[in-house]
Amino acid sequence: MESEVPSYPLALLNLMEEGYVSSRELPLGIATRCGVESSMFNLPAHRLLKALLTHSPSPKTIAKEFLRELGKCGNPLVETLGDVYSEVSTLAVDDWAAIVLQGLQENAGDISTVTQLASHYLTHLVIAFRNPGGPKTPQDTVHPTPNHRRIEEVGELLVMLRDGDYCLLTGLCFFPPTFVPARCAHIIPFSIRSKTRTFSAIETFSGFALDAEAIQNHLNHPRNVLNLESNAHDMMDKHMGWGIEAISSDDQDRLSATTRLKDGDEIHFGAGIGSHQIALPDPRICNIHLAVCRVSYACGASEVFDQFLDDEDDEGYQVPVYFGGPFVSDNILMRKLETLLL
């Protein structure tokens, strides 16, 4: 039964989406950015939760968290059926979802904790991964800010020794006579370095396959970086347009991380002269980043981010832009969100 847990809340969220499409009524409210008085980034909470369940490396962990919060709504029927270890096992998935949805429609009770759960992941996972401008969400800090440029310079050198003198995605060389500058890309963004709540969100999202200690230890380590040319770097970091799928290999008991540009295409790390001395990217880190990219696109967040960035490029702004930062107008972003999502 435990292996079937994710299918119950996913069936419920699918029914909620069907109802939302036809009626535009929000079944679980709006997920908003935490830590601000007036959120300027809003998504239907059920869509964010559905995306998390669909793309999480550990859907069972997310499902349990969702059902636990759903059981706090105050509706006795929903509280009872929300216990996946008792009543729910006697019902087929679709029947369970239909009964719970009807119960919520008749008496939703207090679903604020479910909405807050969606807001937690929107803020501390999706926005945190998409916000290269820096850790602007209110958080507890763990370390002072190091010299970021110096870290990048060291990272570029180490990764070049590991992977070679060319961009793994484009094949462009980093050295003369025909060359492009190398840009050191962090797979999990460096900007989360002091975001302890993001560490917690990653732990749960990954089913604790990647814990806070591992994140902290590897954030500025070759296991979390690769060198890319500028456009490829922006597509990964700024747009979250691609991710790395890590695949286990039996080559000398090492893990070979590859990114599939299209079906059948693979790019391999470790072609440099120092590949045997410098660690490859951590497969857990690669797969977490890829999963968050998928969540961002599935819930509609990436469409908003991309539209905003495209508009900023068209208007020729030459200032650092990040969501929630001083150069992002609340009114402008709110209008974009309302138009695209609600």
Tell me about this structure.
This protein is mainly alpha-helical and 342 residues long. The chain is built from 13 helices and six strands. It has helices spanning 7-23, 45-55, 59-70, 76-81, 93-106, 112-129, 148-163, 196-205, 212-218, 230-237, 283-299, 301-315, 330-341, and strands at residues 30-32, 42-44, 183-186, 225-228, 245-248, 255-258. The two termini are 36 Å apart. Mean pLDDT is 79; it is low at 133-148, 251-260 and 316-331.
Highlighted features:
single chain; 342 residues; mainly alpha; two-stranded antiparallel ribbon; two-stranded antiparallel sheet; 13 helices; elongated
Order of helices and strands: HEEHHHHHHEHHEHEEHHH
Number of helices: 13
Strand order of the largest sheet: 1-2
What's the number of extended β-strand segments? 6
Largest sheet: 2 strands, antiparallel
Structural shape: elongated
> Fraction of residues in helices?
40-55%
Present the secondary structure layout.
Layout: H1 7-23, E1 30-32, E2 42-44, H2 45-55, H3 59-70, H4 76-81, H5 93-106, H6 112-129, H7 148-163, E3 183-186, H8 196-205, H9 212-218, E4 225-228, H10 230-237, E5 245-248, E6 255-258, H11 283-299, H12 301-315, H13 330-341
Antiparallel strand pairs: 1-2, 3-4, 5-6
Quickly describe the structure.
Helix content is 48%, strand content 6%.
